[in-house]
Amino acid sequence: MADAEDRTYRPDALIAQDIDAYLERHRDKGLLRFITCGSVDDGKSTLIGRLLYDSRAVFEDQLGQLESDSARVGTQGQDLDFALLVDGLSAEREQGITIDVAYRFFATESRKFIVADTPGHEQYTRNMVTGASTADAAVLLVDARKGVLVQTRRHAFLAKLLGIRHVILAVNKMDLVDYDRATFEAIRDDFAAFAEDFGFEGLTAIPISGFRGDNVVERSTVTDWYDGPSLFEALEAVPLAGEGSQARPFRMAVQWVNRPNQDFRGFAGLISDGTVRPGDTVRVLPSGAQTTIKAIHTFDGPLGQAVAGQSVTLTLAEEVDCSRGDVISAADDPPQVADQFEASVVWMDQTAMKPGRGYWLKIGTRTVTATLAAPKYEIDVNNPAGSGSRLAAKTLELNGIGVLELRTDRPIAFEPYADSKALGGFILIDKERDATVACGMLNFALRRAQNVHWQPTDIAREHHAALKNQTPRVLWFTGLSGSGKSTIANAVEKKLALMNRHTFLLDGDNVRHGLNKDLGFTEADRIENIRRIGEVAKLMADAGLIVLTAFISPFRAERKMVRDMLPEGEFVEIFVDTPLEVAEERDVKGLYRKAREGKLKNFTGIDSPYEPPEQPEIRVNTVDMSVDEAADHIIAQILPLK
Amino acid sequence: MSALTHLQRLEAEAIHIMREVVAETRAPVMLYSAGKDSAVMLHLARKAFHPSAPPFPLLHVDTTWKFGEMYAVRDKSAADAGMELLVWQNAEAKERGINPFDHGALHTDMWKTQGLKQALDHYGFDAAFGGARRDEEKSRAKERVLSFRTATHAWDPKNQRPELWNLYNTRKAPGESIRAFPLSNWTELDIWQYIMAEGIEIASLYFASPRPVVERDGMLLMVEDERFPLADGEQPEMRSVRFRTLGCYPLTGAVESEAATVRDVVQEMLLTTSSERQGRAIDKDEGGAGMEKKKAEGYF
Fold first, then answer.
1. Containing H/E element for B17?
2. Between residues A148 and A71, which one has the greater pLDDT?
3. What is the pLDDT of residue A451?
4. CATH of A13-239 given 3.40.50.300, 1.10.443.10, 3.30.450.20, 2.30.30.30
């Protein structure tokens, strides 16, 4: 048993005797990042406090503080309450401060460690996933009195999901079960049976007492029946992250193009996989351009070789197109390029996922727009390995984990997450709020995207337009129900027809009778409604037409999505600006009355929001303008259209 | 093949963070204080963008009360790196003669917190690199690498973004800005080992030398210049001291030491028994929550 009474900091004797030898020995330590999983009840804070204390990361002034805090608020009687070294989180939680992960640092004789400590029961999935994303190993805590619980299964599943291959099962509070061998072995076997499906490369179970220090640093004499490693020894034996990824084919996502002058064009990035040497043949993705590495530049001079984990600047032998977001890779074994994927997604935001909506997707150094399909299924994190683990779901809420299909607006270089965290892990960002709303892992590319090739046609869109002697436009009318969109669009179309312009009017109600009759009025269906109309409008604009659309189209994100589908300048957003009171007063179709009576759900302006355009190309005020004046006002601004 | 050492990994990570921020923000700046963490951060920036000079200026939010040597180190470091140096002094604090001897916490607030906000607004920077580390203090342990501030520089702790892998979300609304901490995962020992391994120049104040000091409230304060008001009977005495951190000289306690080289300092540090920020008065204001509160108000 470690001596809990020995409270003095004990520096290594070598520091005083021969500092140079000591520094030499500690200069080239490896770095292991790991996560601790478990609740306060499992003694997690106590264990982390113990790790810091036993590795001498705690100084005298902090120890003094700990002694006084222990006496004041400690829960361990006369003994030091190690949990107080790392707590403070509870007070912060009361203040409402978001704490997803706290990071702690300590070192042993052979390694430095960064511990990701994730607090709390609430938000646990989100927090643990964040901490696990950078971890090489996970320490799973189990209370020896309680054994493997639902939460233990959840922790193991999340560790596996995030690609952690090495798990240490720390069976804690052994002092409270009299260091009973059978208790430990039953828990060990129970967990091993459960975790078999997860295929962890390394699984070590250790009987410990974080409070007493048994088997934390040194093997304890009170568990003489146990012949495995102490926790420190186990942590020192986990293979380091770089060792595996260096053996993979070379990959580096370009962060920044370095151009100090006309003669130097360097590509700066962090090598995520493999090794690179001058003269290596490489490919730039997604373009596929091939060239060779000219040199590896660093501040300390050129390198003959660089490996995964290093930040470098590469120059290429030929002038090829390469910029931020591209991936430079080994030419003979490049990553795949695709735009449709199956992915596992963890939702991390209070606002639920919206299928069909465009989100920013950041992967490597590339940011693209991605739309998500409704989940194929949600995973029951509390029962992840059983046959009932797949739940039906239409969306994902906060802390929900689902498997779904997504597509990006352009092809990206990627690798399955299981092969490369750097090219398979992504985050999703809400375009309106800029919030990080989810993270995900690409599982594989969907074949259909690769097999359906874009059919090049001989008569290009320019020809269609030239034949009609006009410039295609999509005149997108948006506004509340009853604002006058259809009436004004109709008047505009009549005037354009008289001017011999080839037009087509897509009207909300009409489209819902045909193309979109399978869609309702939920937020997800409204998004899909607008997406389809956008695609139709785009085809018509490709055919050279001036398209007029009259849809409420309440969300900015979807109007932006259609704008982004079309060539610059072709999308003209026309805001039919009629105040709600006026539209409701008119109530041409009697819909507002029904909505107010509760007979119509999700009605824009009543119980579903309308997001007005921030910078529409054209705004018409129907309170002050007649229909005819509004139509003339619009036409004056879109001419000449040639 | 072998894994990289901890210093190599920390270096690569810091460089990656700097490049991401530069690639994705409009007008970044690096806060520079002439301390050892600033020196390491500047050195990493030079590595990140070599052979170009770092594509942003250095900003020193000056209080006029730094140690004299810090100003010389500052000017030389900027020149060596080929970077523009911006120095900002809060005009109002200057006019009102705000100083650490008479004004206590107001001194830090006006010169540093308000001064920083003024400078960022004046130049229109949307991202600022700072040298803070998570190991400095308990409340920093959960600090993110990128911390977002509103247009008025307020920190909204309820609305912080999760950071996964090394994917940083740098998107922000107009007027919002980012504080970026590339040294988040470094410890004090890492900083010293790196200074030693890379031969980074730092102020000689970090090394022991006979200096004129007086003892007040258990702190050894250096009598840097004639502005230091001596109490009745107070007499500066020469003692061999060094500083573990550098700030405003009237607020920074010295430690008695014989360590005159980086190697000696590291040895002494490893043998020492108190934590780094202990010598700084700033953390002791307003009880234990001092740093937390300052951060919410806009202090780095």
1. helix B6-24
2. A148
3. 46
4. 3.40.50.300
**Could you say which residues from 139 to 158 on chain B have a Cβ atom under 8 Å away from some Cβ of chain A?**
139, 141-142, 157-158
What pTM was computed for the model?
Answer: 0.80
CB contact under 8 A, A30 and B185: no
- How many cross-chain Cβ pairs, A to B, lie less than 8 Å apart? 192
Q: What is the C-alpha separation between A46 and A213, in angstroms, rounded?
A: 10
**Average pLDDT value for residue range A497-510:** 86
Using CA atoms, how far apart are residues A417 and A414, in angstroms rounded to an integer?
A: 9
Name the DSSP class of A561: H
Give the chain A residue whose CA is nearest to the CA of B5: A30
A255–B160 CB contact, under 8 Å: no
Cβ distance of B52 and A242 shorter than 8 Å: no
Q: Which helix (H) or strand (E) holds B177?
A: strand B177-180
Q: Are A352 and A325 in contact (CB under 8 A)?
A: no
**Catalytic residue positions of A, numbered:** 553
Q: Residue-wise pLDDT tens for chain B (300 aa)?
A: 567 889 999 999 999 999 999 999 999 999 999 999 999 999 999 999 999 999 999 999 999 989 999 999 999 999 999 999 999 999 999 999 988 888 888 888 889 889 999 999 999 999 999 999 988 876 677 788 999 888 888 887 667 789 999 999 999 988 899 999 999 999 988 999 999 999 999 999 999 999 999 998 888 999 988 888 888 888 999 999 999 889 888 888 999 999 999 999 988 888 876 555 455 544 444 334 445 555 555 555
Q: What is the CATH topology of the domain spanning A336-451? A: Elongation Factor Tu (Ef-tu); domain 3 (2.40.30)
| Chain B residues with beta carbon closer than 8 angstroms to that of A131 | none
A573, A549 Cβ separation under 8 angstroms = no
pLDDT band at A549 (very low <50, low <70, confident <90, very high): very high
What's the CA gap between A442 and A418, in Å, rounded?
Answer: 9
Res A639: pLDDT: 83
Query: How far is it, in rounded angstroms, from Cα A52 to Cα A9?
Result: 11
Say how far apart CA A530 and CA A556 lie, in whole Å.
11
CA angle B158/B163/B165 to nearest 5° reads 170
List alpha helices for A508-547, DSSP H.
Answer: 508-513, 523-542
Domains identified in chain B and CATH numbers = 6-191 (3.40.50.620), 204-288 (no CATH)
* 3 state SS of A394: coil
Q: What is the largest CA-CA distance in chain B?
A: 67
User: In this structure, which topology does domain A245-330 adopt according to CATH?
Assistant: Elongation Factor Tu (Ef-tu); domain 3 (2.40.30)
Q: Minimal Cα–Cα distance from A254 to chain B, Å?
A: 10
Residue of chain B with shortest Cα separation from A10: B271
Inter-chain residue contact B271 with A309, CB threshold 8 Å: no
The residues in B 31-50 lying below 8 A from A, measured between CB atoms, are 46-50
The answer to whether the CB atoms of A298 and B47 lie below 8 A apart is yes
Q: Do domains A336-451 and A461-638 have the same CATH topology?
A: no
Nearest CA in chain A to B134: A103
Residue range A461-638, CATH number: 3.40.50.300
Helix (H) or strand (E) holding B267: helix B262-271
Asked if the Cβ–Cβ distance from B2 to A243 is below 8 Å, we say yes
Q: Where are chain A's structural domains?
A: 13-239, 245-330, 336-451, 461-638
Query: pLDDT by residue (tens digit) across A153-192?
Result: 888 999 999 999 999 999 999 999 999 999 999 999 999 9
Cβ-proximal residues to A71 (8 Å cutoff; 6+ apart), any chain? none
- CB of B7 within 8 Å of any CB in chain A? yes
Residues from chain B that touch A31, judged by Cβ atoms under 8 A, are: 4-6, 9-10
- B residues 93-132 lying closer than 8 A (beta carbon) to A: none
